[in-house]
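A quick aside before the break. I want you to see a complete sequence-to-structure record at least once, exactly as it would be stored in a machine-readable document. Don't worry about memorizing anything.
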Amino acid sequence: MFLGDYLEHQLSIGPHDVTRQSNFSIVVARVARRIAVVVVALHMTACQVVPTNVQDDVRGVRVFFATDRTMQANVHPGERFGTDRSDVKYGTCFVSIPRRHKIGALESPSLLRFEFNEDPTQHVVLVNAVVRSKDAFFSELSNHVRNSSTKQAFVFIHGYNVSFEDAARRTAQMSYDLGFDGAPVFYSWPSQATVKGYTIDESNIAWSETNLKGFFTDVLARSDAQRVHIVAHSMGSRAVTRAVASLITESPDAKARIGELILTAPDIDADIFKRDIAPVFAEAQQSTTLYSSSEDIALIASQEINGYPRAGDAGDGLVVVPGVETIDATNVDTSFYGHSYFAETHSVLSDIAQLIQTGEGAAQRPGLLSLRSPNGIYWAFE
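That is the input. The structure line, written in tokens, reads:
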């Protein structure tokens, strides 16, 4: 609906609506909020892409990575890193972004369109993955940050059932859709990238926590980023929250450099999060946002496996605690599994973009409604 049509619709509710004029200010406020959402969306589509030497018409995003997966001899970049544990390696990837890319989409070959092979001009494809020495990696990362206008970086940590290839593709898609000007980085821990590998993934994310904390420490010290935002998804939130809590407790300097901590569909025991993790963030005044949904099938299954509600569940078990802004994304999450809304839903992407770009709290960001639970205020998408 165009802005003019929307305004006309709101102001013509009906001849019997005696409160129409008194509601005019409310309508104007709604319109203003939607204008702000449109502005953010337009900014999101303005992310710069760079060419690759594969083909002149291939565009894409260069992303930085660290991983404690084993490196394999396979020459295909998507299979270069496996599912076993290893020491930390560093490098860069180039991921193609098609010209007709849709916000929130990870374009892939479709049999319905008779597409049988990846095409970097049509799909989001991991074109290459180049390993660097640790020093070379941080030299390139800091150069990228210094040459950006915002002097920022974000680090994405994926969840369960995710391969290195899909983590790279998702990071590039998020960076592009968020219109992020700084350095996009991801950390890929040795997920088995299979549904049945859940319990192994639980062991591996716990094992990766020490490596991840060390990587965060290095990024904060060596990237030259004025602010480092951290976006964690699902099971990846377990290692992220513990690593960040430890960092901000041990080092005030680290706290000053960490920007937004964004937890999306966190697969963390809700009681442990409320008792042991959230109070640390609150005391340190670490800006933390938690996105949840009551339609998240993956977290419903996790509760069945673990026996207790997850922090990313909404509904009756919604986590609302001091120091953490909780946002219920149930209303905008229309995917089948309801677990990847953070990167696939325009409303959530717009909100994350606004959060990273401005640092504004939920009360100041457009498109969010303030609601009250027995434990306090939380937010939901309009």
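Two observations worth writing down. The chain has two domains: 3-39, 50-381. Residues 50-381 form a domain with the Rossmann fold fold (CATH 3.40.50.1820). We'll return to this after the break.
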